[in-house]
C-alpha cells in the first residue's frame, strides 16, 4: 500500500514499489558507484517510483552522512538593497541549472561579536557558500568562514579583504568607458553624482576624479556631488549642480537610481535632455530603458558574474582537492548607449 499523502516517503517505500532492495534504491538516488553495474531498466524503475511517490531527499540527513546536500548557502549583505533582488533571482536560476537549491541568509543588523555563521544560514549543511556583497563590515562572519569545511566564493566583494575566490565587476573601467563616451561627444564640463554606497565604496567616484584630472586637468569646483543613493538623492544633487554659475553640459551618476532622479530634476527645471544636458547612469536596472529619454548607462553583467561564481562554487564543492586560494575574476561592464546622451549644444 502506498504511503498516505501526509507521510514522509522513504527509500524503503521506493524499494517496495519498484521491487528492488533498499540498498539499490540508495545507490540509484545518490548516484553512488557500484561494483556491479545497475541495469538501466532497474535504474529507471527506481527513479520512476521515487517520482510517483513524491520522494524528497532530506538534505540535512544527507549532510550528516557526508553526502552532497545539493544546497548552496548564499549570504546576502542586505535584503533591502534592491540591486540584490535581481542577483538572488539569477543565483537561484543558475544554481538549479547545476542541480542545486539555495539557502538564503542575510547579515544586515544580525551579526554581533562572536555570532557564528549558523545564525545566518541556520545550518552549515551546504555544499558551498556564496557571499553577495562587500562583507568587510562583518569580521566575525569572515572569521567563521575561514574555518569553513565547505568552499566559499564571493561576488561583488568590493574592497573586502581578498580571502576567498571572488568575482567582481570592473567598476573603474566602466566609469571610464562612460566618461570616454561623453568626452567623445564633445563634453568637457562633466559633473558626477556620487551615490553613498555601503562601506564607503568610492571606486566609481575615484575613477571619475582620475579621468577628469588626466583628461581635463582636474574636477571643476562643485562638479562632484555626493548624495543618497536614491531617486530623491539624484534629484537634489542635480538641482544643486545646475545652480552653479557655469553648470556642466553632462552628468555621470554612480547608480541608475541617482541617474533617473537627475532626469526628473532636469525635467522639473525645464532643462532638455540631451539638448542642454546629457545624463549617464550605472547598472542598467530595468527602469533605465523606460525613462524619457531612455538612460544611457553601463550594464552590470549580473548573469555572467553569477554564472561564473556558481560554476566555481560547484566545481570546488565537487572536487575537495581543488585549490581554494584567493583570486579575483573581473568582468567588464558594457556601455549601453540610449537617448540621454548627445553632443553639447553650441553656445
UniProtKB/TrEMBL annotation:
Pfam families per the UniProt record, alphabetical: LacI (PF00356), Peripla_BP_3 (PF13377)
Membrane-spanning ranges: none
Domain HTH lacI-type as annotated: residue spans: 9-66
Origin superkingdom: Bacteria
Keyword tags: DNA-binding, Transcription, Transcription regulation
Protein name in the entry: HTH lacI-type domain-containing protein
Organism: Actinoplanes campanulatus
